[in-house]
Amino acid sequence: MPLLLPKKLSLRTRLFVAMILMLVLAGLLILGSTTIQYESQRENYHLGRLIRKEAQLVRHLNFLESKYNLYGQPAEIWGEYAADFEKITSIHNVQYSLFSLDGKPLFTFHTPLKVIANDYHLEQTLIDDLFATKDGYLLEFYNSDIDRYHASYRVLRDDYSRPYGILFFPYFEDISFSENELNTFLDNLYQIYIILLLGVVLLAYFLSKFVTRSLEAIRLKMDQTGLTLKNEKIYLKNATKEIDSLVNSYNKMIDDLAESAEKLARSEREQAWQEMAKQVAHEIKNPLTPMRLTVQSFHQKFDPNDPESTSKMNDFAKLLIQQIDTMSEVANTFSDFSTLPMAKLKKQDLVEVTQMAVDIFQKDQIIFTSNQAHIYQNIDKTQWIRVLTNLIQNSLQSVPSNRKPQIGIQLVGEEKLSTLIITDNGNGIPEDIKEKIFEPKFTTKTAGMGLGLGIVKNIITSHGGSISYVSTPKKGTTFTILLPYI
After folding, report:
1. What tens digit of pLDDT does each residue of 456-485 get?
2. Considering the domain 11-178 in this protein, what is its CATH number?
3. In angstroms, rounded to a whole number, what is the distance separating the alpha carbons of residues 103 and 117?
4. Bridging pattern class, strands 366-370 and 407-413
5. Residue of higher predicted confidence among 251 and 281
6. CA atoms of 84 and 91, how far apart (whole Å)
7. For an engineered disulfide with 454, which of 5, 165, 391, 440 has Cβ 3.0 to 4.6 Å away?
8. For the domain 242-338, what is the CATH code?
């Protein structure tokens, strides 16, 4: 199973996503830091409020202790003034409990569960810890399924700094109020953040589009750049320094590419003309040599008084005409290749035209079949016959002399194209020259100029088709022509 690689994200998408992620991250940081700061401020506020209320409570208790001279008095004496101590809860709107120095309860309006479980007595370890502190003060936090509050333990002292009791003061926060306040604050923050997010999304979209617009223009130009194309330079307004540097490099590349293309074209033209001149010179030289030898021989041996001089003159003229025709054929073939007339497409019966081309050759060597009686297609009749005669002739010439030629031609008409298959039983095409057979002037035969298959390919290409082949050495070759309906 092939490995599926993730699709690459464009720079514009990356910028857009990065800006959104930065906003989201900044929002989360602001939200987190605001929540932490709010909790810290709330904690400080309630601790300060606890201290203020506790101070009021201590002053009131000290006043009652001094008023009734309760220092060192037993619990029964304290109990006589229970009504005054109970009024404190309503006056200051608080709850508290008062214990003797040995931890016994004097007044218990609210006590933690651990004190209740200890028969409303303070544990000795708590009393020891309390007196071990510098100012006789402990602050604890109670958190259970029933109670959740801060509470303080304080050693109470009279006007002479003598300890006379232990105060337990629980402070209950108004959680519903603080939570509502926090929720209201967060709701407002969410609304502001959503509005800000929408604004940043729009800003990020247009900003990323603006930033990558120059790069997109460069990309489009680069996609249209090619060695054989008419390349255009890029001119951008208000480009950044980096983009401007990239544009200048691209424009310089266009100049270099144009110069290289011109040099390459000039070199190819020169090479083509050199090769063509060599080929033409070679082909013309072939008949000129026997013509020269014939003329020299005729000049040396000709005798006007010879009774057969007329016959010899006629033979000499025929030979010269034959060689001249050969040179004329060479010139015409090169002319046809370089100035192949434009195809004159006309609706023709492809089966009928193909049959006409096949009838030129010996019928016992060629078998022609078609899957339809008539296949109508726009073709140039003359050029199509030329293609078939050239391919059939090449197939016949590829068959060795000790083997009977067997050429099969199959025409298949389909919905969108026609397919022509030509198969022979010749020697095939060697592997080392398979890439060259459609090149002009390339041939493996001792006769001819090697332009036939080049002309064939040009004709088929002008018809919008394609030609390919499969060859097996010593067994034969199959050419396939695909001709779409146009």
Report:
1. 888 898 889 999 999 998 899 999 999 998
2. 3.30.450
3. 14
4. parallel
5. 251
6. 10
7. 440
8. 1.10.287
